[in-house]
């Protein structure tokens, strides 16, 4: 058993009731967390070749729920949990997708002695998985089915033990003493009816929102996974962890905009940002879990109640986004009325259809039972949740997501073309897209919500005594192995410069590749919160390596970890190729190619190099060129070692990563890059 790892992964087959284990060392080459999860998905769902990877509700859809080696060791921000599998959310095809969530579930899983839980099959009745250290049982969930996420956690906690506020008293769970209640990952009524908007929820509202894996739980008749652990995780150098943590705590306290200490039990453990202050699952969540749902609410109290209802029902606030801000964009299509939403989703779409006179009483689309026009009111939010959860009236279509609802109403192509369906790619609601085009490109490549703020920090200004170029040169020193290329950070999008050094150039391909490789290893597999290491300045990436070596004892360099990140990204690509991904399918929705594509540069603009000079620019009118995007794909595929015809990994690339078995499977299916 290696330092940082428990040595075993729990495997639960809900069809047969079989409970077994996988050896963690078999997958350690993929780092941990998502890297391990992707490799397990390949071995159990793809390589056997027993299904065509099209139906996310098929019992053969494998759902790895994984944690990284830094979880449970005291490393701040590294206790996140990764989930991956075939997603019900994506459109028009069910894509291999991934997401992660914070809170305390991941640390508890490690303390129970597991590096992850892999769920396969489908139960013939509602069940939940009860993990108490090395004791695992599939329990009957008949009395839990129909309960909301808070009721579910409360009921399971009473059954397992430890029904106490965190840290207030000792109790015995599984024959060992502890002060923490079990951690429960569960679904609400939205997941039970297999809505493609369903999230997985734990604690007060920490959720896996991307990918609709709550619907996969529902399809498997799985209500919850509960874990209680009283063990520990071995590390190579405990003192080095403490030293690195103290150093980072001082830096975090001195950083601009730092939050005051005092994170509640809903916070990831441990967290230096203190951005989740609830003590238990009663009281709601206050951070990003519900922001997209709250924007536009008419009163703060009503907004809080709407947020709590969203969490209880188990709806993804990201998929059900109501627009955040609207900004003036020159030349935006008429449907935007000059005001473009920075974020959009179900709420934007419904309101737009209502304004067009299409949706509502007497309209082409019957809005019952929704009180349309009352978008900011609590009663509208509650009616929408109930309609989706019970699939009542318009809720039955909305439960399938915006694109499938539009298809059912015969409006798909019309609303894609007009911009009413404002989704960048794969039918998924956007987080950021432009002017940070590395986010936009990540969407078409299949990264789900890229959740990557690494390049969004303001660069220097003459007033600060640091030029833009000097700031970018310092940044470029950190982007191993592409050090020294400052044009990676050029967001020029018009004219010759866009193709030469800007957003369609080989330089931009390097930036996108670097962010995907970093994210694959550090954010997804080591499970570092990406808001915890938000920008490549200060100690990053040195602090990551300090923690990694202190926990694992491995001498890997930062370049080595980036190579592992590329290996994970390449395996992820191979999985997508196996279910039909090609170059032709990697395209944006039409609005991305017109004015109005961009949102708002809230971080002070992006660096743009034109006419031999650098400048800051918010670039509100930025939009993409189809030929330029096509050229970008050619550059990116070449950089990654994928063929330019289809974007498929070549044998040489796969074998350089030790993935010969993957190359052989792709070749047998006629999907190996040439």
Keywords:
Aldehyde Ferredoxin Oxidoreductase Protein, subunit A, domain 3, 18 strands, Aldehyde Ferredoxin Oxidoreductase,  A, domain 1, globular, 674 residues, 22 helices, alpha+beta, single chain, 3 domains
Helix tally? Answer: 22
Provide the domain count: 3
What is the second-level CATH architecture of the largest domain? Orthogonal Bundle
- Average residue pLDDT: 88
Helix content: 25-40%
Find the CATH superfamily of the largest domain: Aldehyde Ferredoxin Oxidoreductase Protein, subunit A, domain 3
CATH class placement of the largest domain: Mainly Alpha
Radius of gyration from CA coordinates:
24 Å
Explain this structure.
It is a single chain. The chain folds into three domains: 8-228, Aldehyde Ferredoxin Oxidoreductase,  A, domain 1; 287-430, Aldehyde Ferredoxin Oxidoreductase Protein, subunit A, domain 2; 437-668, Aldehyde Ferredoxin Oxidoreductase Protein, subunit A, domain 3. The two termini are 39 Å apart. Residues 282-290 have low confidence and may be disordered. Strands 2-1-6-3-4-5 form a six-stranded mixed sheet, with helices on both faces. The chain has a six-stranded mixed sheet with strand order 8-7-14-11-12-13. The chain is 34% helix and 12% strand. The protein has helices spanning 33-46, 105-111, 149-160, 189-192, 213-219, 238-254, 288-294, 300-313, 346-355, 378-390, 395-398, 402-408, 412-418, 437-445, 468-476, 495-500, 506-523, 542-552, 558-578, 626-640, 651-656, 660-668, and strands at residues 8-13, 19-23, 63-67, 81-86, 96-101, 116-120, 127-132, 135-140, 171-173, 176-178, 183-186, 200-202, 206-208, 222-228, 326-328, 339-341, 606-610, 613-617. The longest helix is centred in the last third of the chain and has 21 residues, at 558-578. Strand 12 and strand 13 form a beta hairpin. It is of the alpha+beta class.
């Amino acid at each position: 058993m290696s330092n940082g790892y428990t040595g075993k992964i729990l495997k639960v087959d809900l069809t047969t009731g079989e409970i077994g284990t996988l050896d963690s060392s078999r997958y350690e080459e993929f780092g941990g967390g998502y890297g391990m999860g992707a490799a397990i998905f390949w071995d159990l769902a793809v390589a056997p070749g027993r299904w065509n990877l099209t139906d996310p509700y098929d019992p053969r859809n494998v759902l790895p729920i994984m944690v990284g080696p830094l979880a449970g060791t005291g490393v701040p921000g590294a206790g996140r949990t990764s989930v991956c599998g075939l997603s019900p959310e994506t459109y028009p095809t069910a894509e291999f997708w991934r997401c992660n969530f914070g809170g305390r579930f991941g640390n508890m899983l490690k303390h129970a002695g597991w590096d992850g839980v892999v769920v396969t099959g489908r139960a013939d009745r509602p069940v939940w998985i009860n993990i108490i250290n090395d004791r695992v049982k599939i329990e009957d969930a008949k009395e839990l089915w129909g309960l909301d996420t808070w009721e579910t956690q409360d009921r399971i906690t009473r059954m397992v033990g430890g029904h106490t506020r965190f840290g207030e008293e000792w109790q015995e769970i599984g024959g060992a003493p502890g002060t923490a209640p079990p951690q429960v990952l569960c679904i609400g009524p939205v997941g039970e009816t297999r809505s493609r908007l369903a999230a997985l929820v734990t604690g007060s509202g920490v959720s896996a929102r991307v990918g609709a894996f709550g619907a996969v739980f529902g399809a498997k008749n799985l209500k919850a996974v509960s874990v209680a652990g009283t063990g520990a995780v071995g590390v190579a150098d405990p003192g080095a962890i403490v030293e690195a943590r103290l150093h980072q705590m001082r830096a975090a306290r001195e950083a601009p905009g730092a939050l005051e200490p005092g994170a509640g039990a809903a916070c990831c453990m441990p967290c230096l940002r203190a951005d989740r202050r609830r003590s238990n699952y009663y009281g709601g969540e206050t951070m990003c879990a519900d922001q997209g749902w709250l924007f536009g609410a008419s009163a703060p109290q009503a907004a809080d109640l709407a947020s709590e209802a969203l969490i209880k029902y188990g709806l993804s606030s990201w998929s059900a986004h109501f627009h955040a801000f609207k900004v003036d964009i020159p030349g935006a299509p008429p449907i935007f009325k000059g005001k473009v939403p920075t974020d959009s989703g179900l709420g934007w779409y419904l309101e737009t259809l209502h304004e067009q006179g299409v949706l509502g009483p007497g309209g082409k689309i019957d809005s019952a039972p929704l009180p349309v026009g009352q978008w900011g009111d609590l009663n509208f939010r509650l009616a929408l949740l109930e309609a989706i959860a019970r699939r009542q009236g318009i809720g039955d279509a909305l439960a399938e997501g915006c694109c499938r609802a539009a298809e059912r109403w015969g409006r798909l192509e019309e609303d894609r073309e007009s911009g009413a369906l404002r989704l960048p790619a794969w039918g998924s609601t956007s987080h950021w897209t432009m002017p940070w085009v590395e986010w936009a490109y990540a969407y078409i490549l299949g990264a789900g919500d890229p959740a990557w703020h690494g390049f969004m920090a303001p660069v220097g200004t003459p007033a600060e005594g640091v030029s833009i170029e000097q700031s970018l040169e310092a940044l470029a020193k950190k982007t191993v192995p592409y050090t020294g290329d400052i044009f990676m950070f050029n967001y020029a999008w018009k004219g010759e410069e866009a193709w030469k050094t800007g957003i369609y150039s080989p330089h931009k391909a390097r930036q996108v590749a670097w962010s995907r490789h970093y994210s694959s290893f550090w954010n997804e597999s080591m499970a570092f919160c990406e808001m915890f290491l938000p920008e490549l300045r200060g100690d990053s990436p040195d602090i990551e390596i300090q923690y990694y070596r202190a926990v694992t004892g491995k001498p890997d360099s930062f370049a080595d970890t980036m190579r592992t990140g590329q290996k994970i990204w390449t395996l992820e690509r191979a999985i997508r190729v196996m279910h039909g991904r090609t170059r032709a399918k990697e395209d944006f929705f039409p609005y991305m190619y017109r004015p109005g594509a961009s949102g708002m540069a809230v971080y002070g603009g992006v660096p743009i190099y034109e006419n031999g000079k650098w400048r800051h620019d918010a670039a509100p009118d930025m939009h993409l060129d189809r030929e330029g995007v096509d050229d970008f794909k050619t550059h990116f595929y070449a950089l990654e070692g994928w063929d330019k015809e289809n974007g498929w990994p070549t044998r040489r690339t796969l074998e350089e990563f030790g993935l010969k078995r993957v190359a052989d499977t792709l070749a047998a299916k006629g999907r190996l890059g040439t």
